[in-house]
């Protein structure tokens, strides 16, 4: 889609500007550009190999772009920062495979994630204060895991692990949240509960959901960006992109 | 899973079982620190309760090895860093203490040179190398026994963790590190006694190293140091930093994306662990009376890892138990049939890694349960037969 028509991106939450990343000559991202507005929820879809994961790697500091820039909040260039620095700026990321700390309790998972001093010595002498404790408790309610508070995270069901990981992002209090396939492997009931949870979060912070599950993206009812071969193929409402002939050809029509 | 993969797979031990084990461990250490010297010094030699002096030193040696095992468990069991070069830190701590004791010899050496240790006179050196300065001062030597291993660990860790070297690659580099140090210390012109190392020590802080009293005090000091290190490690793994390093062990990328600088946390525990190993070496040398480059041998470091694997990694007390038990087995076996010791050690290591990955202490609860069930089958519990009676 056309993103060059605007004069200024100083108001945007995230501005990905012509990013290209090559691995051994293969262009995983090819002049990728898109904008996420503050408070917006966006869905990003695309077939395997479209560059969804690489896109998130670039934004969260894991991979450095060969060309182009990633601008956060209008003037912060993310291209030169590592993972920890990107998180400190307020960007959270949930992985595709649920990654929670299986040998820690649900509560401890959230305790490690909650916004706090990340330095080594601060962690050595850290004592959980009442504020953070109550925030963890309320997040437990919100993600529906209050009853599993003291259980080992490894004992949770797949869906519960996904929610716990979303909870771990929420307690970090990020401004921008990346969720990589939040409903992968979930039962229908769990998917529905996740849709409710995400709808509940809407407007609170900017959220980018990367998904394969079309029914889920439909249920979210948000603006959709379709990636293909490392660049944006189409952008608009779900109905719009579903009727786009290019999209039908490369993705939905198969 | 292959044997190798199992070495890098995290072994989470059940939480909450440490309290009893800690109490037992600390009581045993206290008992050793008090009773063994008492039975050695006050009970007449012909009594059945007399503890001979060689046993006092042997116990002291085991406890130093246990401290080395503790330091390895802190990084391997809790942070997933498998160091196969921890013997280097142990040896460096030992050398620092050895240098102090060499300086204590003074003019009582074979050549009677008050300024230079015998091996330097033999090499025709005229003056003390600059890096030997200060080692005639005991507190300086103790600080160096901690500082030098810590500094080496800091430089090594800073380079490797920042480059995100981990797993097998890191283990191999640690092996190379200790091997390189061994070769360096073998050279006479390094100024550490070359092949022979440092030996013929006379006294420590003015106390005769051969006397029973000194040996008893050294054992007691080792017990206190081990207990102290254990309590420190315990409090670290119980802190938020402790939960974080186990999180790094289990899923490093997730920790990174939570905004922590993983390399700094690894560096902290690695340096601390190296310092504990250095302290263990410093306590070891006065009790065995010699330190030579053989202590840097890669096989020594691997052996220490085996103690931890057998004892049970990720528990701290398991590592201590492993360090003592395996070395006791070594003393017994090498006394009876020396040829089979290495095979026995290798066999135990493979068996534990494959069948009891949680080690002896980690498998103990399951073994107790199993025995209980066996006994339970034979004589059904009395309460259940009572409960059935009213119905009959």
Overview of the molecule:
- The complex is a heterodimer of chains A (254) and B (392).
- Chain A has 254 residues and is α/β, with parallel strands linked by helices.
- Chain A has a single domain, classed as 3-Layer(aba) Sandwich (Rossmann fold).
- Chain A has 10 helices and 10 strands.
- In chain A, strand 1 and strand 2 form a beta hairpin.
- In chain A, helix 3 packs parallel to helix 6.
- Chain A is globular.
- With 392 residues, chain B is mostly helical.
- Chain B is 70% helix and 2% strand.
- Chain B has a two-stranded antiparallel ribbon with strand order 1-4. In chain B, strands 2-3 form a two-stranded antiparallel ribbon.
- Chain B starts with a helix and ends with a helix.
- The chains are: A alpha/beta (254), B mainly alpha (392).
Keywords for this structure?
heterodimer; A: 254 residues; alpha/beta; four-stranded antiparallel β-sheet; 10 helices; B: mainly alpha; two-stranded antiparallel ribbon; two-stranded antiparallel sheet; disordered C terminus
The percentage of residues in β strands of chain B lies in: under 5%
Strand order of the largest sheet of chain A: 6-7-8-3-9-10
Uncertain ranges of chain B: 383-392
Strand proportion of chain A, as a percent range, falls in: 15-25%
Could you give me the name of the CATH homologous superfamily of chain A?
P-loop containing nucleotide triphosphate hydrolases
How many separate helices of chain A? 10
Please compute the radius of gyration of chain A using only Cα atoms: 18 Å
End-to-end Cα distance of chain A: 22 Å
- Class derived from helix and strand content of chain A: alpha/beta
Low-confidence stretches of chain A: 1-7
User: How far apart are the first and last residues' alpha carbons of chain B, in Å?
Assistant: 53 Å
Biggest β-sheet of chain B: count, sense, barrel?
2 strands, antiparallel
Count all strands of chain A and give the number: 10
Mean pLDDT of chain A: 87
Anisotropy-based shape of chain B:
globular
Average pLDDT taken over every residue of chain B: 90
Across the major sheet of chain B, the strand order is 1-4
- Chain oligomer state: heterodimer
């Amino acid at each position: 889609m056309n993103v060059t028509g605007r004069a200024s991106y100083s108001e945007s939450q995230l501005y990905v500007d012509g990013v290209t990343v090559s691995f051994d000559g293969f262009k995983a991202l090819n002049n990728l550009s898109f904008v996420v507005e503050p408070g917006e929820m966006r869905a990003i879809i695309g077939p395997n190999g479209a560059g969804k994961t690489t896109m998130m790697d670039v934004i969260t500091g894991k991979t450095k772009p060969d060309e182009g820039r990633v601008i956060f909040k209008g003037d912060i260039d993310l291209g030169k920062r590592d993972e920890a620095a990107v998180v400190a700026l307020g960007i959270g990321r949930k992985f595709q495979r649920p990654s929670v700390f299986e040998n820690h309790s649900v509560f401890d998972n959230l305790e490690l994630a909650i916004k706090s001093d990340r330095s080594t010595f601060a962690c050595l002498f850290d004592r959980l204060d009442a504020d953070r404790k109550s925030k963890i408790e309320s997040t437990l309610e919100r993600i529906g895991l209050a009853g599993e508070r003291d259980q080992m995270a490894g004992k949770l069901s797949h869906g519960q692990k996904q929610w716990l990981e979303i909870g771990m992002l929420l307690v970090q209090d990020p401004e921008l949240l990346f969720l990589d396939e939040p409903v992968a492997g979930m039962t229908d009931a769990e998917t529905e509960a996740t849709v409710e949870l995400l709808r509940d979060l809407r407007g609170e912070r900017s959220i980018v959901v990367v998904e394969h599950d079309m029914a889920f993206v439909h249920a979210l009812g948000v603006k959709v960006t379709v990636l293909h071969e490392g660049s944006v193929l189409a952008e608009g409402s779900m109905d719009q992109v579903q009727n786009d002939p290019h999209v039908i050809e490369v993705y939905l029509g198969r | 899973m292959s044997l190798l993969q199992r070495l890098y797979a995290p072994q989470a031990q059940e939480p909450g079982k440490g309290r009893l084990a800690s109490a037992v461990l600390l009581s045993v250490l206290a008992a050793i620190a008090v009773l063994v010297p008492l039975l050695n010094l006050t009970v007449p030699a012909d009594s059945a309760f007399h503890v001979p002096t060689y046993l006092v030193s042997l116990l002291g040696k085991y406890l130093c090895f246990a401290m080395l095992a503790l330091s390895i468990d802190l990084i391997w069991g809790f942070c997933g860093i498998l160091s196969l070069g921890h013997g280097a830190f142990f040896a460096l701590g030992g050398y620092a203490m050895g240098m102090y004791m060499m300086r204590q010899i003074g003019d009582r050496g074979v050549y009677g040179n008050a300024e230079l240790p015998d091996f330097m006179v033999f090499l025709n050196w005229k003056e003390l190398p600059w890096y030997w300065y200060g080692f005639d001062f005991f507190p300086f030597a103790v600080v160096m026994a901690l500082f030098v291993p810590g500094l080496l660990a800091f430089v090594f860790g800073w380079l490797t963790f920042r480059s995100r070297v981990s797993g097998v690659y890191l283990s191999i580099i640690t092996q190379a590190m200790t091997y390189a140090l061994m070769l360096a210390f073998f050279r006479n012109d390094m100024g550490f006694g070359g092949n022979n190392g440092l030996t013929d020590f006379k006294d420590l802080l003015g106390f005769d190293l051969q006397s029973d009293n000194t040996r008893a005090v050294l054992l007691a000091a080792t017990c206190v140091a081990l207990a102290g290190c254990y309590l420190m490690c315990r409090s670290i793994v119980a802190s938020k930093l402790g939960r974080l390093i186990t999180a790094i062990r289990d899923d490093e990328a997730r920790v990174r994306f939570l905004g922590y600088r993983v390399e700094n946390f690894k560096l902290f525990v690695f340096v601390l662990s190296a310092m504990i190993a250095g302290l263990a070496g410093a306590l070891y040398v006065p009790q065995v009376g010699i330190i030579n480059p053989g202590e840097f041998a890669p096989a020594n470091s691997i052996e220490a890892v085996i103690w931890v694997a057998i004892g049970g990694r990720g528990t701290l007390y398991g590592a201590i138990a492993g360090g003592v038990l395996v070395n006791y087995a070594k003393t017994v076996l090498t006394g009876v049939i020396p040829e089979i010791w290495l095979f026995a050690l290798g066999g135990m290591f493979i068996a534990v890694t494959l069948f009891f990955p949680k080690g002896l202490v980690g498998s103990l609860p399951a073994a107790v349960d199993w025995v209980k069930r066996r006994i339970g089958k034979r004589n059904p519990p009395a309460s259940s037969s009572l409960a059935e009676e009213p119905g009959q």
